[in-house]
Amino acid sequence: MSSIVRRRGSNGGKSSSSDWATRLYNVVVGVNGVNGVYGGRGLTTLLRLSVIVYLAAVFLLAFLAGRQRLSSSDKGIIDRIISPSSLLRGGSPLMCRQRRPPVVVAVVKGDSSPLERYPYMTSPVDVDHDFSTYNPPGGNRFAEYKDGDAPYLITSATLHMSDELARSRRIHVANAMKHVWKNYRAVYGKDEMKPMTGNGSDRWGGMGTTLVDSLDTMWLIGLKDEFWEGRDHVRDHLRFDNVGYVSFFETTIRNLGGLLSAYEMSHDDVFLEKADELGKRLAKACDTPSGMPHGSVDLRAGKSNNQLWNGNDYILAEVGTHQLEFRYLSRATGKRDYADKSMRAFDVLRALQPSDGLLFEHITEGKNNRPAFANGKVSFGAMGDSAYEYMLKIWIQGGRKEVVYRRMYDKAMTGMHEQLLHKSSLSGLTYIANRIDCRIEHKMDHLVCFLPGALALGAYTDPLGLDSPRARRDLKTARSLAYTCYQMYARTSTGMAPEYVRFEDENDMVVPRDAPYSILRPEAVEAFYYLSTLTGDPIYREWGWEVFQSIEKFCKTKYGYGGLKDVDMAGSVEDRMESFFLAETLKYLYLLFDPDSEIDILNKVLCLHVFNTEAHPLRIFED
């Protein structure tokens, strides 16, 4: 077995006549094909005709457009068409319209057409599957994915088999969530539960962070009784007037994001009322001369400050990772101030962005309270990562209309490709290095593994089209970088990834002495989810299943799941379970194996979502 040598940072839901026309059109033409499933023209006019004339016209339209249904014998590559009309139209932004069957996807146009069918399909997993028998298979497998190619023919039959296999796997991810929640009841309302002892702790201010962070995961998995029990706790016990200083960043993405997503899922006003109360208190951190939020905020007293450990500077990820949440809160409450404050901070980043698009980690207000960079480090890992993620997602959340933020993202991705993208000399693995002043640091955090998902999402929503050179570049990098992230897991004894790795000429992928641990981070399985959903390639479900089996065998405890002190040492479980393990890691794993999900990140249904950086799905605005 190959091994590795030794943070994260309104119509009230009623359908209009055109909706019914669109549904009728999809019944006739079929929505399991690929091209422009939302694209019927002149539907309103056609409704005025008789049913017979209407159906004949639709068949003629389908013929002229060259649309066709895909059968299980189809041998072609399935192309993805991005349709602007896939955005939610005419209705409350917080109410979901009728769901449509998913659109299957596969290889991007422009790839060389593979001839060999996908070869790695396996049998469905038994309900009583024994994870104790699992042995990590080792690294350097699936090397045909290393360079970002799409090596296999993915047919509709392949996708159907992959979906059936996935459904047998999602049961086990749901069981993992049930295992945790059964034991969390003993410390219900605590911020965290210790997986070795079952004790509770209030590490995040005593706001029930594990509960709030996990609400939408329970909803998506189908634990509705547990979800509504959590709602009652939020209504009756969640208070903020007795909470002192907390992290603005973590409280926004975990607590505020969790409340907003629970509201998005359930439309229960309890969650919105609590989110509004929390948002008012958090927004005090933005009352600075520049509009950039302080890193810490006292929810009780309404005070805020930056931390001494970072030289009293502002951190890039903190400045650029609260906009999705506050914009959604503005839309839901009608209070514009939330969005205005959050976007003022992001526009500071837009003004600071240099020609190469790459932003430094530390920012100061400088002389005369004018923001300026305070150091020379550029990283897509800790303290930088999610600011780049939100450049893309703000544009998506706004219905792809605020082009300045898409331009920020595209400029940053070009700078990343030109300055930070490297290949290891030994194995040819793609990785993203850091830049410190003019020096390259050949180190990659596990946190960087968010980037394949962002790159893939950016490629599939590229205004220039999926077959444009830019989108093809980004998707190829996404696939090759995802393979490196997979290798971070596959090359260890437990099949779990370390906190970060270094790339050295003589040893390739190296785990430094201060980074052998795992805290069950979600970024790799997040990338697998995006790539699986967008490209349709089943390989990402295989990689995710390997990760989940390792979690079950090496990280499961009597009460929950703990990280590992050393990913090359079985039995080194730590007595700590981050709330993001439930909010992100298990959620992305479940969605990876859930072809029937109500969540849509692109073009499958009329209810489109964008995830915040804590994996909380929020509705995209339709106007």
TrEMBL record:
What are the alphabetically sorted keywords of the record?
A: Calcium, Disulfide bond, Glycosidase, Hydrolase, Membrane, Metal-binding, Transmembrane, Transmembrane helix
Cysteine pairs forming cystine bridges in this chain are C449-C485
Query: Where do the catalytic residues lie?
Result: E250, D385, E499, E523
Q: Which domain of life is it from?
A: Eukaryota
Cofactor requirements of the protein: Ca(2+)
Name the residues that bind Ca(2+): T613
Any stretches that span the bilayer, and where are they?
A: 46-65
EC class: hydrolase
Q: Which Pfam families match?
A: Glyco_hydro_47
What InterPro entries does the annotation carry?
6hp_glycosidase-like_sf, Glyco_hydro_47, Glycosyl_Hydrolase_47, Seven-hairpin_glycosidases
Which molecular function terms from Gene Ontology are attached?
Answer: hydrolase activity, acting on glycosyl bonds
> What Enzyme Commission number(s) appear in the record?
3.2.1.-
Pathway terms, separated by semicolons: Protein modification; protein glycosylation
Question: What PANTHER family does this protein's entry cite?
Answer: MANNOSYL-OLIGOSACCHARIDE ALPHA-1,2-MANNOSIDASE IA-RELATED, MANNOSYL-OLIGOSACCHARIDE ALPHA-1,2-MANNOSIDASE-RELATED
The UniProt similarity line reads: Belongs to the glycosyl hydrolase 47 family.
What name goes with this protein? Answer: alpha-1,2-Mannosidase
